[in-house]
Design goal:
Blueprint: H1 2-18, E1 22-29, E2 33-39, E3 45-51, H2 53-58, H3 62-69, E4 77-80, E5 84-88, H4 96-100, H5 104-118, E6 131-132, H6 133-136, H7 138-146, H8 150-164, E7 170-172, E8 181-184, E9 187-190, E10 196-198, H9 215-218, H10 221-235, H11 239-257, H12 266-276
Parallel strand pairs: 6-10
Antiparallel strand pairs: 1-2, 2-3, 3-5, 4-5, 7-10, 8-9
Helix pairs in contact: 5-10, 7-8, 8-11, 11-12
Length: 286
Amino acid sequence: MLTALIAETLAINTIADDWALRVEQKIATTATSTLYRAAQADGMLAVLKVLNAVGREDEKHAAALLHWYDGHGAVELINANADALLLEYAPGGELAELVYAGHDDKASAIICSVVQKLHEHRRCAPPAELIPLRSRFSDLYHAASTSRNPLIREAAAIADSLLETTEAEVPLHGDLHHHNIMKSNRGWLAIDPKGLFGDPAYEVSNLFANPLRSAPLCGQLARTRRLLRTTSDVLGYSYDRIARFAFVHNVLSTVWSGTADNPEACGLIVAGNLRRCFSDPPTPGC
């Protein structure tokens, strides 16, 4: 434990020297990284994100996609190497707080505005190393080949159908939800992209079982339908494809968490609601 702490301190000191930073305060520790508030040489605050072994693999394409976003809809990337990212400071808190305060529909509208910015056409080509959605679904396909759970096999079959009928592909944040959108001096901005590439209708898949600690809200069929309508109407993506991608994602999330056989798992409840929306009348124009 002490050895790891010393190694971490040395690594932070090296990064601070290389990037001319004064590391002021630890902000948070997550499954993939430790976050610090840091002051740059000009006094401007930034977030230093030091990746752990999980983060170096899980977020290895984040810097490339943030560079491509160029601050439009996402925090600006100031500097990066294989072990850390230096990011624009967004001190205003998570979008999740708006939901906790009872403003879920307002939060949904904000999410759509962020997605619109992230998905705007850019003149420069997207990063070549982004992960195709089929690769993202690899754990689902593996589970479907070994599991007796019919829901997993259904999700894998739907994923195949969606991928085979995809007409356009764009760079995808890949982990967009209420805890990965922060308030900054420039407005609401996305953080922590995974760096995927595929059908734009997938982008909002992670919204339906979020924010955390909101299982009663997320489990409401009416909320699922409301979120489907909002995202489809505002973004112009197919209601049915959004519902099906979200179904696939939420079943996949239970594979990742080992809860695919627990009927009380939030992801399964949300997936069940999404399946009930497959037969909904289409949104006009979608």
